[in-house]
């Protein structure tokens, strides 16, 4: 794997670790052999781009087609155990012994040196940049995978003590930190799939299997490993944009009933692909526009969608430590299974939210997403917080109840939310008069629930983000409605 293919989460965690105490400078200057001038340039460029300096270093070094195994060895020389642990899921298992060696050394040292004054407790004590690559790696032929390592150090010697320590790795009882444990588990749950398998699964990208096209590529129906799947074939896979996109899509690994599962990804072929669970009910967008040949959604189905999406979002927003903000909640990204159970898809714009209890929002350099679903504070001031998703959810609720277009240039007030608020100001205006025309006046009509859902929509789309409810609150509100039995099936 090349440096530029590092999964987003791994890259991010490495940046966090190496930005700390400016450890990236040691990596760049001592181990990657960049000159002080180059190091300053990297720092300057990172500042200009509002990027982590480690990320900028990886971009520069990655341009030389360096591989993650090379980075692993440099971090080994730095004795940076947390960073090594972070890379464990993406390097060949033969390299893991290097980490064991450090862990053993650390546990021995920490037992014998009670008074050790360790500046960076997570990192190995001391630093010896001249530790050679162990002979076992050279014997195992890994040197072939690392074309640049020999030129970095001109290695010829092995280190037999290292080899024997490594062989004792089973005695190592030092446990990785829980953070990295978790990270490793999460990343390893997304399997890499061969492009050829996906080509076969979709009958050579047959037009008859095309489910739709979005901004990032085409989506095909397929059968992979005996399961129905939807394969997203990404456009311009060679651009760094898509690599980032894939990384961000890895955030989809959060498992929940209301989150569309990502089954796998493929990076080796002509286009990068993402493999999702196939959702036979199509997107909410298509269902609201009655573009699928299915009958209009009933109120029990609409309730199920409102309830399920609220449940999925509150799960993301209440992630321990850092909420996850989806950033692009809209009917096109809400997919329905055969039972109309909604699942939130498309994590291409998902972001880790503000960290820590004292931080309610963060300022971002660029706004992404779909304009009619985004609140003013994000569009104008670039304030990103879970309240952005709450606003988008509110707009979706207004669409769910009315099936009116979210943006209509023929209306005097184009945005649906503003249009409804304008109507609401009229005397004796009843929100239920906006109920989806496809069910209004039929046996499926439910004016009372229509009003409730629209009230929730209006509450969630309040101008002041502090006045919007938390998704947990919305979920509870929906959950506590007294509805007939059929609504809960
Ligand atoms: N897992 C899936 N199961 C069934 N259909 C899907 C699945 N994922 C996407 N689709 C269909 O494929 C179409 C294109 O999806 P895609 O996510 O690429 O675009 P979008 O969300 O509509 O737009 P954009 O990505 O530009 O926001 C959608 O209309 C959706 O109906």
CATH class of the largest domain: Mainly Alpha
Percent of residues in β-strands: 5-15%
What CATH calls the topology of the largest domain is Transferase(Phosphotransferase), domain 1
Tell me the count of domains.
3
Q: What spatial form do the alpha-carbon principal axes imply? A: globular
Q: Which distinct ligands sit in these coordinates?
A: adenosine-5'-triphosphate
Largest sheet: 5 strands, antiparallel
CATH superfamily placement of the largest domain: Transferase(Phosphotransferase) domain 1
Structural class: alpha+beta
Please tell me how large the radius of gyration is: 26 Å
Count of extended strands? 12
Explain this structure to me?
The protein is an alpha+beta fold and 489 residues long. The chain has helices at 8-19, 23-31, 36-48, 53-62, 68-78, 81-87, 96-112, 135-139, 149-153, 160-167, 178-188, 195-201, 240-249, 284-288, 299-317, 376-381, 386-402, 416-424, 447-460, 471-479, and strands spanning 210-214, 217-224, 227-234, 262-266, 273-277, 282-283, 324-325, 334-336, 342-344, 351-352, 362-363, 383-384. The protein has 20 helices and twelve strands. The longest helix is centred in the middle third of the chain and has 19 residues, at 299-317. The chain is globular. It starts with 7 loop residues before the first helix and ends in a 10-residue tail after the last helix. Bound molecules: adenosine-5'-triphosphate (ATP). The site of adenosine-5'-triphosphate (ATP) has 22 residues, from strand 1, strand 3, strand 5 and strand 6. Its EC number is 2.7.11.1. InterPro entries: DEATH-like_dom_sf (IPR011029), Death_dom (IPR000488), Kinase-like_dom_sf (IPR011009), LRR_Rcpt-Like_S/T_Kinase (IPR051824), Pelle_death (IPR037924), Prot_kinase_dom (IPR000719), Protein_kinase_ATP_BS (IPR017441), Ser/Thr_kinase_AS (IPR008271). Residues 110-130, 157-180 are annotated as: Disordered.
């Amino acid at each position: 794997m090349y440096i530029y293919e590092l999964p987003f989460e791994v890259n991010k965690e490495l940046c966090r670790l190496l930005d700390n105490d400016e450890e990236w400078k040691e990596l760049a200057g001592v181990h990657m052999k960049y000159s002080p001038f180059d190091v300053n340039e990297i720092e300057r460029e990172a500042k200009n781009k509002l990027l982590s300096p480690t990320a900028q270093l990886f971009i520069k070094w990655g341009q030389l087609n360096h591989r993650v195994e090379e980075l692993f060895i440099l971090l080994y020389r730095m004795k940076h155990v947390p960073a090594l642990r972070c890379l464990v899921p993406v390097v060949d298992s033969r390299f893991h012994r290097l980490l064991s060696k450090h862990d053993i050394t650390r546990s021995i040292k920490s037992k014998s040196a009670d008074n050790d004054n360790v500046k960076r407790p997570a990192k190995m004590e001391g630093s010896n940049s001249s530790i050679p690559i162990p002979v076992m790696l050279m014997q195992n032929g890994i040197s072939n995978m690392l074309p640049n390592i020999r030129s970095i150090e001109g290695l010829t010697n092995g280190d037999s003590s290292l080899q024997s320590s490594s062989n004792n790795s089973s005695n190592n009882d030092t446990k990785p930190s829980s953070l990295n444990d978790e990270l490793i588990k999460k990343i390893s749950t997304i399997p890499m799939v061969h492009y050829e398998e996906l080509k076969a699964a979709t009958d050579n990208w047959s037009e008859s299997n095309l489910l739709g096209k979005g901004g990032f590529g085409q989506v095909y129906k397929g059968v992979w490993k005996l399961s129905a799947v939807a394969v997203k074939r990404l456009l311009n896979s060679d651009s760094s944009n898509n690599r980032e996109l894939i990384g961000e899509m890895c955030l989809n690994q959060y498992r929940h009933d209301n989150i569309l599962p990502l089954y796998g990804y493929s990076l080796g072929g002509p286009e990068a692909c993402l493999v999702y669970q196939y959702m036979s009910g199509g997107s909410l967008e298509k269902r609201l526009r009655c573009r699928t040949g299915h009958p209009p959604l009933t109120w029990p189905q609409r309730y199920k969608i409102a309830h399920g999406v609220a449940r999925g979002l509150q799960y993301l927003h209440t992630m321990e430590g850092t909420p996850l903000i989806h950033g692009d909640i809209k009917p096109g990204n809400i997919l329905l299974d055969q039972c109309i159970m909604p699942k939130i898809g498309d994590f291409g714009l998902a972001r880790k939210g503000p960290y820590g209890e004292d931080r309610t929002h963060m300022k971002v350099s660029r706004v992404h997403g779909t304009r009619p679903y985004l609140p003013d504070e994000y569009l104008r001031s670039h304030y990103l917080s879970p309240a952005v998703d709450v606003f988008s959810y509110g707009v979706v609720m207004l669409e769910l109840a009315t099936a009116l277009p979210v943006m209509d240039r023929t209306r005097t007030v184009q945005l649906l939310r503003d249009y409804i608020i304008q109507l609401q100001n009229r005397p004796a205006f009843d929100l239920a008069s906006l109920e989806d025309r496809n069910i209004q006046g039929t046996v499926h009509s439910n004016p009372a629930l229509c009003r409730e859902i629209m009230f929730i929509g209006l509450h969630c789309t309040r101008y002041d983000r502090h006045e919007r409810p938390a998704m947990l609150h919305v979920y509870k509100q929906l959950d506590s409605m007294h509805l007939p039995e059929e609504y809960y099936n």
